Amino acid sequence: MSDSHTSIAVIEARGLVKRFPGVVALAGMDFELQAGEVHCLVGENGAGKSTLIKILSGFYVPDEGGVYVDGEPMQANTAAAKAAGIATIHQEHNLVPNLSVAENILLGDWGGKSGIVSKQAVRARAKSALDQVAPGIDLNAPAMALSTGEGQMVEIARAIAQDARVVIMDEPTTALADHDVAKLFTLVNDLRARGLAILYVSHKLEEVFELADKITVIRDGQTVASSVPAAQLNTQSVVRLMVGDNVNMYEHVPRQRGEVVLEARGLSRAGAFADVDLQVHAGEIVGLAGLIGAGRTEVARCIYGADRLEKGVVYLDGKKLTLRGARSGINAGIALVPEERKQQGIIPGLSVRENTTLSLLKQVSHWGILKLGIERKLAQKYIGDLSIKTPTAETSIRSLSGGNQQKVIIARCLASNPRVLILDEPTKGIDIGAKAEIHRLIEQLARTGVAVLIISSELPELLALSDRVVVMRRGRIVGELDRAAATKENVMSYAAA
Rounded to whole angstroms, how far apart are CA atoms 336 and 304? Predict the structure, then answer.
């Protein structure tokens, strides 16, 4: 980490207030970012982190307060932010899929005279920027062909090409494999050494303490700890600042295991997995571990019925299932919380109420007529039971934080009274407080006799929750470990051998 006490302030937010219908997202927030430092911003989902980022990037206009660059007020628009040297790397790719890497690096700034763009000049400028970040990436490749890690490197190269002074990284490791995370950290350290100001937002406190020079904690739209040197804080103190008290973290409690509920025999799907045998008992949490691409998600989707099996049989309570689409799984008593929340779990244009009952229309209708009273009562029950933070049940789900969107998806699953609950990356992109709540909820479900199968790329999470861990590698099960034997070293020895 750098010694940034002599750095000059590059960007400041003073007294920011931002209101949305029914919500005050920022309530008089102050923030300061200096050159040559990594400043980590942490807070629960809904604390105001995304709103601050969008104001600093010029996407939102604050209702009160302002943003200052080198002490001078910045106009609230994206052009002004770009001119000030502010670049944002979002959680999800912000690349044009059909354009080349070179074209994406210089997107909107291709130069040329009289509207004529020189491909040779574009390539030369893009190569200069990319060589500083990831020289192995093909400049001519279409963006759609890039991996998640490569896409992030291209976005960082774009920031360099734009002579960015401030780089904002919003949950940059959410979808990265471990080797890509290591590359990103190396690059962050390099950018800091060059004198850039890095605003790094993450729910993963181990990342925060590895990278941060300073930490700012926000809660309910206000700054509760500002620019504190990372060396003066620890994980517990940051969590306490985030949630206002010591968070009640999940602790594993032994449970009585019942009969086999879910059994998979000889499951195969060409190019994805082969000869998978798996059992989950009543009241048991089984973790499905493996590196990205091992086939875990593909197995889960086939058990649920979302994807077609080519070989093998799935049994529920000893009864052979005929799986022809997700409806088959739902009717059989299997519920799935999918990996990609935004693409597979919610319909952004619908309300919290409608998303909660999306797959439960039989429960909330009669003779094909929707019974709004029943639907509202069901949605309200789970808003209370799961402590979903939403102004009302009629609020659009797209306006909720990621953690609360995930709770709505889980609520939908619970309302179907499943015998088997499959959770694929259930806490991806979710803050510590919401994560602890979801962990406790999973344990409570298992205690009622639900058979739980969980997939998580966060190995500490998987080890904390699971009674057994089944490890996949290259589409096959290569190991099974009981709780005592399921250490990080043992799991990785199977997963990466």
Answer: 7
Q: Which candidate, 93, 169, 158, 164, places its Cα nearest to that of 128?
A: 158
Decide if 9-243 and 259-496 have a common fold. yes
Compute mean pLDDT per 10 residues along the chain, 497 residues long, and list them.
Answer: 53 92 86 94 84 93 94 92 89 81 81 63 84 86 85 86 89 77 89 93 88 93 92 87 67 85 95 95 95 89 92 95 85 88 82 83 72 83 85 89 84 88 86 79 91 90 93 94 91 83
Per the CB < 8 A criterion, the answer to whether 259 and 281 are in contact is yes
pTM confidence score: 0.65
The encoded tokens of residue 194 equal 């060059």
Which class does domain 259-496 fall in? Answer: alpha beta
The DSSP-derived string for 410-472 is HHHHHHT--SEEEEESTTTT--HHHHHHHHHHHHHHHHTT-EEEEE-S-HHHHHHH-SEEEEE
Q: Among positive and negative, which fits the CA dihedral 220, 224, 230, 232?
A: negative
The one-letter code for the residue type at 291 is L
Domain boundaries in the chain?
A: 9-243, 259-496
Token pair of 410 as six digits: 């889980």
Contact 310, 317 (CB under 8 A): no
- Please provide the DSSP assignment of 158-204 as one string: HHHHTT-SEEEEESTTTT--HHHHHHHHHHHHHHHHTT-EEEEE-S-
The superfamily in CATH containing domain 9-243 is: P-loop containing nucleotide triphosphate hydrolases (3.40.50.300)
Contacts of 438 (CB under 8 A, 6+ apart): 403, 406, 407, 410, 426, 427, 430
Give SS3 for 3. coil
* Cβ atoms of residues 261 and 419 within 8 Å: yes
Q: Which helix (H) or strand (E) holds 87?
A: strand 86-89
